[in-house]
Model the fold of this input.
Amino acid sequence: MLVALDVSSLDEASALLGRLDGVLTGCKIGSQLFTSAGPAAIETALKRGFRVFLDLKFHDIPNTVAAAVREATRFGIFMLNIHASGGLAMARAAAEAAVKAAGDFGIPRPLCLGVTVLTSLDRKALQREVGVPTSVEAHVLHLAGLAREAGLDGCVASPQEIGLLRLAMGQEWVIVTPGIRPLPSGGVERKAEPVRLPDRRNPPLPTGGVERKAEPVRLPDRRNPPLPTGGVERGVEPVRLPDRRNPPLPTDDQVRIATPRRALAAGADYLVVGRPITGAQDPAAAATAIVAELGGP
Done:
């Protein structure tokens, strides 16, 4: 489990790492802290004994990304990422740059991951705003396949795609998962649904699909027309109160989320946990509770 150091200053990051010392062994440094503190953030975490996942999601022309990956490798981090949507050439340049830099500097090569679809996007946003006319799951699998072809080690994906990725990509593929939200106090976790790969005979897009048997046509119910005037009212549907054993998980701006236990059971290798720890009154206690749920850090 990696704590997301999404804070605004090096002092805040250092204090948080101090409180989590002995509870967690890894952290994620992203755009906010790196923009604020620069490489000093990485140095601080490494000096405290934390492994660093540099989450800068490089996305540029291949030459620029390769140069950025080389400099990131120089820091001694254990993992970094790029946007898989940058294309095959960009992803391949990143993978090759990490190998060469590690050899030149005489240090271990960092794991290189491809970011698939951000956890803040759902199908509607992916299609209407990003312009990808397919399901989130299909696009995640497509980008993961591209990342593997380029020589990357794994991908970043939401908890909802872990099972599909593990089936499609195999056990060696590294899966890093943000969007982790612990179950609210008193909640009872339900059994996960079985994972099913997309039906290739009937893809989300109509092109190439084999049309299934049509649903029977039903004429309008004349006793209950769309307008209430003249209609015969049917029995009222039973009212269902909120399930207090399974209250909804807090989403913030992430819409594809899961509990730590479910993400791990689905096949994730690394869980990135931010606000449930950094926003807690006692970050160490919050992290300890998650670690206990998972059986280890």
